[in-house]
Amino acid sequence: MIRHKTGIAGFDELVQGGLVDKRIYLVSGPPGSGKTTFGIQFLAYGATIGELGLYVTLSESPHNIVSDMSNYALNIPTLIKLKKLLFLDLGPTLEYGYGDELHSVITPSFDSTNQPAPEAEAPSPFIVYKEISNFVRQYDIQRLVIDSVSAIRFTSEKRSQEEKEMSRFMRNLKELGCTTILLSELTDPNTYSTEQFAASGVIFMHNFMREDSMTRAVQIIKMRGTEHDCDMRKVTFTKQGLQVLERM
C-alpha cells in the first residue's frame, strides 16, 4: 500500500507513515486552527519529492494564501515558479454567479487571467469538479487540496439534493487519481456530514481556550485501512509549519 508523507512533523508516524495513495481525506476545524497550513505543507512536501500539487481555493485569494504561507520556510514562491506547486482560483466570483467560460488561474509568474462573467446560478459541485478535473489532467496533478468544501456544500435549498450532489462530487474526485485533502469549516467533530462518511480519513483541528490561553490540537477521527492514534495531540506553529506534539 503506497503512502504519501504529509511533511508535517509528528503527524505521519500517527498514521503508519502517511496518507494512502489516491484517497480523499477531510481536514476540518474552526478558523485559525491550522487547516490551510496543513494543506500547504502537504503540497509543499510533495513538490520537493517530485509530486506535483494543486491548491484550489473557493474563497480566499491565492495571492493572500501565498503571502501568508511564505512566512514559513517552505519555499512556496520558489515551488510556484518552478511549476511544482500550482494554484487554481475558483472564487470569490463563484459566490455571485458563475459563467462557464470563467477560468482564473494563478500562474507560476503570479499573473492572473480573469474574464468577467455574467451573473448565473450558484456554483454546483459539478461545475467545481469540471474545472478541477480539466486542470488535474492537463498538468498531471498528484496531490490536491480543495479549500474549502464548505464553499460549495450549501448551494442547494434542499438538504437531500445537497447530500446527493456532494456524494457524487466526492465519488468523481476519487476517479481523478489524486491523493486529495478537502478542507472544511465544520467546527464540531461530533457533527456528521456526507464528506465525513465518504472520505477515507477525517482529521479534526481543534482551537479553543484552555486556562486563559489559546490551545491548538489535532485529532484523527477516522482513517480507513490505517492503524492510527485517536487522542488529541497538541499542535504548534514553527518556522517549518505545523508540528504535532504530545498527547493532551
TrEMBL record:
One of its GO terms (molecular function) is ATP binding. SUPFAM superfamilies: P-loop containing nucleoside triphosphate hydrolases (SSF52540). Signal peptide: none annotated. InterPro entries: KaiC-like_dom, KaiC_dom, P-loop_NTPase. Gene3D superfamilies: P-loop containing nucleotide triphosphate hydrolases. Keywords: ATP-binding, Nucleotide-binding. Residues 2-248 form the KaiC domain. PROSITE patterns: KAIC (PS51146). The keyword Transport does not apply. The keyword Repeat does not apply. It holds the Pfam family ATPase. This is KaiC domain-containing protein. It comes from Candidatus Methanogaster sp. ANME-2c ERB4. The lineage of its organism: Archaea, Methanobacteriati, Methanobacteriota, Stenosarchaea group, Methanomicrobia.
